[in-house]
Amino acid sequence: MSEVKYSGTGAGGGHICIIPFPACGHILPLMDLTHQLLLRGLTVTIMVTPKNLSYLNPLLALHSPNVKPLVFPFPSHPSLPHGVEQMQDLPISFLPDIVNALGKLYHPLVQWFRAQQSPPVAILSDIVLSSWTVNLASHLNIPNICFVPFNVAAVYFWISTPSFLLPFYREAFTMSMQSEGLVFNSFKELESTKLGLIKEKFAKHCRVWGVGPLPPVKVGDEGLNERGGATSIPPDQVISWLDSCKVDKSVVYIGFGTQITLTKHQMKAVASALEESGVRFIWAVKEPMKRAEDGDDDQSLIPHGFEDRVKGQGLVIKGWVPQLTILKHRAVGSYFTHCGWNSALEAIVAGVLLLAWPMQADHFQITRLLADEVGAAIRVCNGLRSVPDATKLARIFVESTTVGQPQRVRAMELQKTALNAIKEGGSSYQALDKVAEELTSFGCNRTEMMKTIRSSL
Questions:
Q1: Where does 177-309 have alpha helices with state H?
Q2: Cα four-point dihedral sign 336, 342, 346, 347
Q3: Does residue 338 carry a catalytic annotation?
Q4: Exposure of 119 by Cβ count < 10 A (0-12 exposed, 13-18 middle, 19+ buried)?
Q5: pLDDT (tens digit, 9 = 90+) per residue, 159-218?
């Protein structure tokens, strides 16, 4: 393994090491959590591989020298394409391979910790890495806290019915319950019952926190270009187009996150529905993965002639989009989505009606929560390979821009609840304070222990 790059950080009771999982839906909210911990006085070292270093840029710009990167070369793995270090380049079936590759950094991390004069006093790591990070922390005799980027209902379902999980995920979630704490990007007012059940039945301690929806780190003009990548339409042009829309809540935003690519038939159905509906829209189209499943080599194909036929009606953006800024714009009324947790939270914060097409992972539990229990979303389609009926979907698009829909009213009520949770004095704000206090206490305890050891020598 080639040389590790590291810029040392200052000593202090609140120095922690953060180990993220390299997928947008995991690393971005963990960086948002890190931002909140830095604001509360902690000092942070973040372990990344070279192609994920850019995710740290906003934190480095805002918090240097209290945050430092620890860069390891990405370990090779026989199942991973050469040069791939991020999940958005791969189908979800490759997640265990990414975790196992990163697990090869166990011993280099132990060596790094032991070489530090003032090493981190705790590890904060993504829950999917728990199969090795919990043991790493135990080996180093420091606590491990798990960050959970999934919603609480999904995690409760998974750990309550472990037979539903593949062995890799069963091990990860079982190990996470042995950590010193669980930090969920959710809020008590939405998921208090499940938070309590996880605390009582599985974690067996009180260190289970709901700290969401975590506000995004912002640097520069509205933070538009800090999380982005290559895009076919610059963000300022997207916003200008939205500004030109005269009617509030009249635009349908369509996006399926960084992990989902639609098949040719699915793309055709969505395109036909948009044409038939006549609604104004923004459609975010993900770049094809480096390696498609099921021999599907026609993913993300926009139907021939579609963009010409809808010119003036909508925008098709290939690549990265300023999603949160789009959702918060007055012209956007609904969001056709896979209902991934980060996307759902962004819609909640924006007060936008969700049109749910759950496909994999926690999407089904999220849709059940928001559509069936809370009533702030409409279930449109179901399943990774299902193809929506274009005529029915067109009707839903039109109806979703109707201001008086009961689901829209409930979505706006949920928005107020979420914003109250994250403002000063709110439940999530207070939980963030408690997380920071707990992590700082680990440092204080370690300092006292070292004093005792030295005095006995």
A1: 188-198, 235-243, 264-277, 306-309
A2: positive
A3: no
A4: middle
A5: 999 888 899 999 999 999 999 999 999 999 999 999 999 999 999 788 999 999 999 997
In 138-246 the beta strands, taken as DSSP E runs, fall at: 144-148, 181-184, 208-210
Write the DSSP assignment of 356-424 as a string of letters. Answer: E---STTHHHHHIIIIIIS--EEE---STT----HHHHHHHHHHHT-TT-HHHHHHHHHHHHHHHHHST
Model confidence over 283-317: pLDDT tens digits? 999 877 655 444 455 566 888 889 889 998 999 99
Instruction: Give the CA distances from residue 101 to residues 3, 98, 131, in Å, rounded to whole numbers and listed in that order.
Output: 17, 5, 12
- At 55, list the tokens: 């995710």
Is there a catalytic annotation at residue 298? Answer: no
Q: How far apart are CA 266 and CA 92, in angstroms?
A: 19
- CB neighbours of 138 closer than 8 A, spacing ≥ 6? 144
For residue 129, what are the CA distances in angstroms to 12, 18, 125, 161?
26, 12, 7, 20
User: Over 1-22, what HEC string results?
Assistant: CCCCEECCCCCCCCEEEEECCC
Do residues 35 and 113 lie in contact, with contact meaning Cβ atoms separated by under 8 Å? Answer: no
Closest-CA residue to 15 (of 146, 122, 110): 122
Query: Which amino acid is residue 398, in one-letter code?
Result: V
In this prediction the pTM is 0.90
Closest CA to 86 of 12, 13, 20: 20
Q: Which residues, 6+ apart, have CB-to-CB distance to 18 below 8 Å?
A: 30, 34, 44, 45, 46, 47, 123, 124, 125
**Domains, the chain, ranges and CATH?**
5-217+423-456 (3.40.50.2000), 235-419 (3.40.50.2000)
CA distance 321 to 332: 14
**Nearest Cα to Cα of residue 44 among 69, 74, 80:** 69
Amino acid at site 84? V
pLDDT of residue 384 exceeding 50, the answer is yes
249: helix, coil or strand?
Answer: coil
Contact at 8 Å (CB) between 386 and 393? Answer: no
129-153 confidence digits (pLDDT tens): 999 999 999 999 999 999 999 999 9
Bridge partners for 312 per DSSP: none
Buried-exposed string 120-131: b where 16+ CB fall within 10 A, e elsewhere: bbbbbbbbbbbb
Q: How far apart are CA 411 and CA 51, in angstroms?
A: 37
Q: Which of 26, 35, 63, 363 is catalytic?
A: 26
Q: Out of 35, 126, 362, 363, pick the active-site residue.
A: 126
